[in-house]
């Protein structure tokens, strides 16, 4: 980045001849002001490895029709000015110099645009006199324009260092598919961006799948899917497969897909199909006295109105919101506000129980339907407008789910937690001895706990310290390392498995939120014999 030079040149700042000084004095003042303006910009720019820099705001959404709404934005970019190059001749020759300048915008509503292919939304510095990017000083006295301004440039030309890129979009049938620019590595501070710890959804990118990556519903009416999420249905005929799938649009490359395998074309009053996440009270309660913004990406082969209900643990307080999938198989960003602070009568836990349930409906009978956009004093989480997703072999795919403190104006694309951090949060509820990519019931002794019994109901060195403290004392399940059989411990001394149902054999004082010790209430262990087992610890809500 070149700096301005030739400041306060006395030959052209009121010296002799006076007429020449008068002619170029305003040029020197202009350069002085540009130089002072550039100093803080350069200092801020030096804080980063890349350029330009985005500071805050700049959220781009579709307005009415083919228009854009853009929140107020602040950034740092380049601005070109013309300064003297040499005083050896009269008038001096000139050159273009770049300065670093702060550029600020006001909010734009329904800004008209003309899309063409991939269209770039850029914020650019501009002088109030109308000159864009480049301002040339000419001879003659003039008042220097010291007021900064801006312009939004929306066209098919990629941005340069003279622009702060806010977003790109494509247009199809009047629908704008907008991709917000990710400035993660250069941002100073973005008040419109939720910091990563603000998302209270566990595994909202569906990246962690310790238990299984796919579950086909054959008979169970309730089961866990990927970590943090569960699926439930009534004793009705519809069946589905719930799977972690690859998704190139997702922030982490993963999504959850629900595929109907057996349709249910007629939803009875007591029927229900939904998936949900119970949020722990410790995580939810700080959001209770504010507005929550739930956002996610979704696409489905079944267009129509869907619903989401958020309620307490009792459950006797639910707030229902509707959203519409307008076009089948087209990705869509959904943003919904939930006014938690306005609910003052229900009981909301603030410890390790369920702080709230977040329920995504797929097909719901009339027994669980109520009015939207209000707090209802019951456990109903759907409206009568909910589409029947189970009327055919439909698919529903969702990714990048987040619930933060704020309104729609505070939305920003999800910032995933590091994998190890997300895994540890999931392990607070569910942990296995197997390595992450090793499936339950695999025949492996690498992750087992081994011990030697010193009498018929206890052992040496069989206290297991879990990686993460659990939400509560967990339920335990043991697996044979050699055969992979569930509810088995391997007896290496005899070369066979023994039946061992953990929570039957272990008294409660052998299991805590931090560790467990292996013993037997039924005298299943033989003194001085060698044993080994793999295990899971489950304290899911």
List the helices and strands and how they pair.
Elements: H1 18-45, E1 53-57, E2 60-62, E3 67-70, E4 73-86, E5 93-104, E6 108-112, E7 119-127, E8 134-135, E9 148-155, E10 163-172, E11 175-180, E12 214-216, E13 222-224, E14 230-233, E15 239-246, E16 254-262, E17 272-280, H2 281-284, E18 291-300, E19 304-311, E20 318-325, E21 332-339, E22 354-364, E23 375-376, E24 395-405, H3 419-427, E25 430-432, E26 449-455, E27 458-460, E28 463-465, E29 475-479, E30 488-491, E31 496-499, H4 502-505, E32 515-517, E33 530-538
Parallel strand pairs: 4-8
Antiparallel strand pairs: 1-4, 2-3, 3-6, 4-5, 7-9, 7-10, 10-11, 12-15, 13-14, 14-17, 15-16, 16-24, 17-22, 18-21, 18-24, 19-20, 19-22, 20-23, 25-33, 26-27, 26-33, 28-32, 29-33, 30-31, 30-33
């Amino acid at each position: 980045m070149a700096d301005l030079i030739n400041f306060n040149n006395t030959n052209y700042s009121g010296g002799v001849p006076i007429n020449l000084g008068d002619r170029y004095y305003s040029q020197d003042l202009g350069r002085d002001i540009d130089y002072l303006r550039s100093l803080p910009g350069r200092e801020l720019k030096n804080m980063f490895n890349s350029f330009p820099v985005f500071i805050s705001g700049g959220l781009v959404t579709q307005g009415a029709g083919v228009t854009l709404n853009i929140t107020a934005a602040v950034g740092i970019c380049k601005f070109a000015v013309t300064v003297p190059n040499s005083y050896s001749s009269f008038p001096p020759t000139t050159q273009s110099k770049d300065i670093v300048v702060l550029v600020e915008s006001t909010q734009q509503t329904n800004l008209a645009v003309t899309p063409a292919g991939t269209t770039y939304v850029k914020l650019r510095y501009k002088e109030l006199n109308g000159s864009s990017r480049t301002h040339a000083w000419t001879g003659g006295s003039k008042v220097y324009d010291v007021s900064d301004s801006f312009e939004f440039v929306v066209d098919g030309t990629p941005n340069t260092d003279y622009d702060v890129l806010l977003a790109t979009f494509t247009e199809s049938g009047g629908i704008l598919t907008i991709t917000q620019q990710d400035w993660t590595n250069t941002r100073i501070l973005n008040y419109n961006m939720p910091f990563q710890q603000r998302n209270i959804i566990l595994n909202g990118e569906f990246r962690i799948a310790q238990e299984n990556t796919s579950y086909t519903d054959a008979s169970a009416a309730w089961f866990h899917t990927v970590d943090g999420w569960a699926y439930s249905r009534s004793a009705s005929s519809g069946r589905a497969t719930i799977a972690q799938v690859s998704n190139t649009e997702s922030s982490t490359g993963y999504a959850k897909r629900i595929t109907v395998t057996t349709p249910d074309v007629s939803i009875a009053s007591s029927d229900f199909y939904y998936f949900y996440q119970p949020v722990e009270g410790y995580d939810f309660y700080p959001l209770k006295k504010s507005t929550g913004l739930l956002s996610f990406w979704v696409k489905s082969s079944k267009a129509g109105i869907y619903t989401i209900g958020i309620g307490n643990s009792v459950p006797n307080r639910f707030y229902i919101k509707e959203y519409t999938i307008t076009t089948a198989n087209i990705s869509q960003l959904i943003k919904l506000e939930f006014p938690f602070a306005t609910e003052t009568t229900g009981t909301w836990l603030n410890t390790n129980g369920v702080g709230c349930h977040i329920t995504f409906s797929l097909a719901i009978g009339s027994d669980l339907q109520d009015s939207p956009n209000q707090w209802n004093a019951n456990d109903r989480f759907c409206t009568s407008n909910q589409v029947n997703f189970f009327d055919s072999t439909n698919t529903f795919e969702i990714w990048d789910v987040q619930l933060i403190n704020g309104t729609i104006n505070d939305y920003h694309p999800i910032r995933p937690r590091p994998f190890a951090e997300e895994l540890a949060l999931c392990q607070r509820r569910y942990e296995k001895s197997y390595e992450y990519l090793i499936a339950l019931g695999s025949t492996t002794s690498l992750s087992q706990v081994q011990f030697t019994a010193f009498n018929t109901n206890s052992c040496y060195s069989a206290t297991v310290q879990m990686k993460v403290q659990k939400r509560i004392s967990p339920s335990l399940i043991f697996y044979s390392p050699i055969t992979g059989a569930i509810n088995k411990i391997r007896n290496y001394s005899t070369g066979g498995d023994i039946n061992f149902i953990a929570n039957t054999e272990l008294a409660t004082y052998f299991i805590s939120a931090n560790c467990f010790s292996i013993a037997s209430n039924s005298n299943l262990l033989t003194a001085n014999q060698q044993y080994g087992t793999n295990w899971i610890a489950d304290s899911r809500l």
